[in-house]
Amino acid sequence: MKTSLACVYAAALAAAASSPLALAVAPTKTFSAKILLDLRASAASTPCSLVQPVHETQIHRLIQTPLDIYEERVVRKNRVNVEELDVLPRDATDQIWVEIFGASPETVAAALAARCPAGIVQAEPLGSGAKEETTRGATPLLRRLADPAIRKLVDSGDPSNRIDVVFMGDGYTASEGSRLFDDMKRLTDDMFAGETFAQYLPLFNVWAVHQPSAQSGIGVGGRPKDTAFGLYRDGTELRGVYTSKPDEARRVCALIGPNACDFPSLIANDDYYGGLGGEFVIATRSPTTGTIVLRHEMGHNFGQVGEEYDGGGVYRGANSASSLASVSWKHWLTSGSVIREEKAALTYTKHMWYNLRNGPYRIRFTSTGEFKRWMGVFTISGADDDGAITITLDGKRLPWKSSGNRDRTFYTYENRTNGFSAGSHEIVVTGNGPFDGPIVQQLCSFDLNEYGDESTFAMNNPDAIGAYPTWDAGNRKLYRPNNERCLMRNMESTKFCVVCQENMWLKFFARVSPIDSVIVGAQNVATVKVIPLAQLRADNDPFKLKFPQLASQERYAVTWRKGGVEQPQFRDLFVADLSRATGGANGSWTVRVAFSTPSVRKDSKKLLTAERSFSIA
Fold it and tell me: Which segment of the chain is annotated as a signal peptide (predicted)?
């Protein structure tokens, strides 16, 4: 149904804008709506697709006045399929999810009207009987769905003031429930008890969901199996995994409860590499690469950032700059205020997905001879034996040792003392079999970068922050903050660079407050309950155990003000006997909590600070 919203809410919006008093009051609620846009289509003639209508949602702390509007964009990566929207073209390229936040239904609706001048089409499945379709002879979908089994793996607090990750398993049959919950626990521990997200753990709840599938595993060759969320691979190669049932994934995630489906993730019951970002983070249970894919794709969605590796399609957000002048991380530069382009070249990049059964693969490239160092990264699947692969460079054999499994694996070669001579060079990759295993012996990709010496390209300090060039799929040069430490560039890494770490703190604190509640009890004793960070981290907190020095540098600063005047006797107290205040407890009070961490140097919106006001009569 096509709808025009501008006329309906224009009067309400004008009334809000004309009220100075209203603008001075910080909003206490947040509302949002989600639409799907095709950036190639004309906004004037193409209606938007409404995925989620205007509704109350978890507070967004960037909505600081009644007229504030904030948009979050996620690039669509999943394929269009039979459960998608009528108005969409079949090609999903250049489509984005846009969630619009505001302080009232009226402001969100007015923003929708401005975004969608051609109106809005309510999202509906394709075809009148889509939900009654059967999948490869199965019972009709609606009649065979049962309520899923849900477990809370990490319970840090009320979802209204936490970030909630929901792992929904796909391709796990009714008898595989134990395996599913074991897999989700392992992935959760890898992510949050390990180095990658440990510092943020008190901000998170993590849920696991078992919606039983009729068949075990996921589809290949573009054909999903009869599974809960219809995950499938395009072919047999270990790369993207797509969902054919996004509607069902949205429905099941909503069952977790209000404000509890912030980051939905679909986990395939599959032992090998694969995944996707976008509306859903998709990964597999793979013991070798499941976490590698999951933390990288979560990095995209948590931080609202694009790629850092070469040859990608989306470069945006806190970890990307189109020029030296637009670098946003200058407050993190290792060299101080001086910014330079680190001298490097992308000499070769290709995802060839070549079946080595068909013979050797030849990689030819030309070097200018001006670079002193180089690094090449292969990804290879189906090679679980040291004799499976032979690699030569200009006719000389390079050492190669298998990872010991058939999963897609990263193999890195580098030379930090001698660059390539000027001219043409050739790398030959030969597969030696066996070729009859379940996973194709395949050269998946190869990237080759050349670097200047240390005076022109900072490499010896792996944590150095500067302006490191990256080239997208169209050979456009952009800049990233770090060389190879950050897992948004190097998927084998287990940590983010400091720029990404800071960005995630800011993104998370845009949706949660350091303060959970303020309680005034008997005899006017007030308690401010906060998220257990800084000096309140538990003794068994993974971040505190693994990185005690960093954890010790976190701090909560607490101030209590009565009638606008600080009461210094209560400074840094989480429990205060307000009867000891100057003039007694009665009056208007404000408690302020400010969190600080060495991972955040710039918080222009004061997101790490929160206040609560109350009165005692």
Answer: 1-24
Q: How many residues make up the chain in this entry?
A: 617
- The answer to whether the peptide bond before residue 434 is cis (omega within 30 degrees of 0) is yes
Cβ pair 492, 483 in contact under 8 A? no
Q: Are 121 and 85 in contact (CB under 8 A)?
A: yes
| Cβ-Cβ contacts under 8 Å for 584 (sequence gap 6 or more) | none
Distance separating alpha carbons of residues 316 and 331, to the nearest angstrom? 19
User: Is the CATH number of domain 343-457 2.60.120.260?
Assistant: yes
- Domain 513-616 listed as CATH 1.20.1280: no
Cα separation, 510 vs 200, in Å, equals 14
Say yes or no to pLDDT of 206 above 80: yes
Look up tokens 């193409």; give the residue: 46
The CATH number given to 134-303 is: 3.40.390.10
93: closest CA among 35, 33, 34, 41? 41
Q: Please check the confidence at residue 25 and state whether its pLDDT lies above 80.
A: no
Question: Do 478 and 469 form a contact (C-beta atoms < 8 A)?
Answer: yes
Quick one: residue 477, left, alpha or beta (phi over 0 = left, psi -120 to 50 = alpha)?
beta
Q: What is the pLDDT of residue 93?
A: 59
pLDDT per residue over 478-503, tens digit each? 999 999 999 999 999 999 999 999 99
Chain centre distance of CA 134: 33
pTM for the model: 0.91
List the one residue out of 293, 273, 426, 292 whose CA is nearest residue 360: 426
Which whole-number Å values give the CA distances from 331 to 79, 457, 485, 599, 602, in the listed order? 39, 19, 18, 12, 8
Residue 395: how many CB atoms within 10 A of its CB?
Answer: 7
- What residue ranges do the domains of the chain occupy? 2-122, 134-303, 343-457, 513-616
Local structure of 447: helix, strand or coil: strand
- DSSP state letters, 372-398: SEEEEEEEEES--STTSEEEEETTEEE
Top-confidence residue, 235 or 136: 235
> Which residues are CB-neighbours of 20 under 8 A, at least 6 positions away?
none
What's the angle, vertex CA 429, arms to CA 427 and CA 435, rounded to 5? 175
- C-alpha distances in Å from residue 614, one per residue of 560, 562, 588: 11, 10, 6
Helix, strand, coil percentages (3-state) for the chain, rounded to 5, are 20, 35, 45
Alpha helices (H) along 255-328: 290-303
| Encoded tokens for 558 | 């607490």
| DSSP β-ladder status, 442-451 and 373-381 | antiparallel
Asked if 276 and 242 touch (Cβ cutoff 8 Å), the reply is: yes
Would you say 76 and 133 are in contact if contact means Cβ atoms under 8 Å apart? no
Bridge partners, residue 587, by sequence: 616
Q: What is the mean pLDDT of the chain?
A: 90
First and final CA of the chain: distance in angstroms? Answer: 53
Q: Which residue has the tokens 């006719």?
A: 395
299: left (phi over 0), alpha (psi -120 to 50) or beta: alpha
